[in-house]
Amino acid sequence: MSFEVRFLPEGKRCRIREGTSLMSAAQLCGVDLAAICGGKGYCGKCLIEIVDGKVSPPTEQEKKRITGERDKNYRLACQAYVKGEVTVRVPDQSRVGKQRLVIMGKEPMIELKCNVEKIFLELEPPTLNDPSADDERLLGKLSEMGYRGLKIDAHVARELPRVFREGGWKVTAVVTGRGEVTALEKGDTTAKKYGLAVDVGTTKLAAFIVDLNDGSIVYADGIMNPQIRFGEDVITRINYASQGIEKLEEVRSAVLEGVNQLIGSGTASVEIDRNEIYEAVVVGNTAMHHLIFGIDVKSLGLAPYAAGMGRAFDAKARDVGIGINRSGNVHFLPNVAGFVGADAIADILASKLHEKERLTLLMDVGTNTEVMLGDKNGIWACSTASGPAFEGAHIRCGMRAASGAIEKVWIDDEDLRVSYKTIDDKKPRGICGSGMIDAVAEMLKAGLIDTSGRILERGGVRDGEGGKEFVLVGKEETETGKEDLVITQDDIREIQKAKAAIYAGYMTLVREGGFDRNSLSEVVIAGAFGNYIDPRSARTIGMIPEIPLDRISFTGNTAGSGARLCLKSVEMRTEAQLVASKIKYIELAAKPIFEEEYVNAMYIPNSRLEEFPETAGVIKAPRVVRRYVRR
Prior knowledge:
Layout: E1 2-8, E2 12-17, H1 22-29, E3 47-55, H2 60-65, E4 74-76, E5 82-89, E6 116-122, H3 134-144, E7 151-152, H4 154-166, E8 170-176, E9 180-186, E10 194-200, E11 204-211, E12 217-224, H5 234-241, H6 245-270, E13 277-284, H7 286-293, E14 313-316, H8 317-320, E15 329-332, H9 342-351, E16 360-364, E17 369-375, E18 378-384, E19 405-411, E20 418-422, E21 430-431, H10 433-445, E22 461-464, E23 467-473, E24 485-488, H11 489-513, E25 522-526, H12 535-540, E26 552-556, H13 558-568, H14 570-582, E27 583-585, H15 592-601, H16 613-616
Parallel strand pairs: 1-5, 7-9, 10-13, 13-15, 16-25, 18-27, 19-21, 25-26
Antiparallel strand pairs: 1-2, 3-4, 3-5, 6-8, 8-9, 10-11, 11-12, 14-15, 16-17, 17-18, 19-20, 22-23, 23-24
């Protein structure tokens, strides 16, 4: 039996089967609704109001997450199942909103040596004296021009006779470095030669159409990764896709839908045909890499977290499902390990970490943070589960970096007055990751928390439902006008765990590699989230090493930059495989050192505050007496 579900205020309606969650109904109707934990009921961000109708009773997860002054008609969409006709209101605070995405990143200049060539040919038509087959005529002409040993793609072979005759025997052949004719076009089309670079991020997709005749970017855009409906974090998606081939295909189809949406928008914008895109380069973390191609990911979720595919490989666009020329080549960069993937290789290429003269730390900050430490002599790498706190999960008033999110925070040391900046200068409706990092750093400097992260009794601090909390913004200033925006003790603990994982990953590499951390010359922070972090705040809370601010740089989406480099140069693909083969990967789960460093790094900035006079000088909070693991 099916029932109608109506969503307010949009008025969108759909009929769904009895027993389906309201989260699934919202996704079916195209309703903007947060789904950070992938429907597990952990994040509490999909709060909705049941206006009318019949749904299943509240679950234990809901009883934990829905507290305080909220009406009994409030439910979590992922935990409420349809039992009859129902009308639902989605409040603003439960919407993702317009997400701010970082698409571009720094990209070094390289010589253009792409994998695609277009050759204009004028052929002699067959005669009774020379009735050679069309394929022999084509390959013979190309051989005369130095292109020997070529094959013809099956789809191209089917169209050979028609294209030759309709083109009056004047055609353009598209040849890839794999030694294959992948397209044949009427007339001289050498002026139109395009490629596609794709960065498949856990949160976002970024696509770039590049003119392969001169290397210029003619189109760049990004959207949220449609896979988010299966869970915000990689592990949740791995678990979902591991339930069987059908589930794996669901997740794969979702990301392909997003990529092809970007391709459609791009080709329409620059007025080209998708068949004029002859090659694509794809990067992403190991899970995203596997999921877009349909590789079984079950092994990524189980120790020892082995990847299914490590080496770079090529596939036909039609086999992948990417909407470029169906005979075009899709190149996948290599993966390093289960949780350090092709995007990390792209980061290294774009930042030139492997060419650095002095010790450099490269971090791509996100739900999983790739940490890479090294120079031209070698690179050590690991992946830290920094958690979804930076995306707003498990934070009482947390949200993604969308309109109305508090992204910057300042607290006056004397009167504890809070100043803030929101994205798009809208009224505040939550706080995003960069705002949380600022808030914790400012609370530490103002003496609102001690170095263990404990909230102290000072102005603006009150007793909340789960302990002490600091009022960041009064409800009268918020978008809804209903609830104060606060920082709770649990919120601070979530940020401590996230930053501790990152710093502990760095220190594990330092110790495993035998490096002197005092010799660290530079810190490079990549990724969309990293682009908005205040380096002073990150250093204050101990998320990044204590290094002068002028030696910290932000490079944006270098994963996309690295993909473009490999699209424009086959030599960069060779370099990518070489870099991957020389990286020394450290699996943190197998290293007791990481546990030691994690404990030390839980303190703010960490357990050896006295070692860092630059940071210690601005902190008013009392130091706590504690024991910690000594190295």
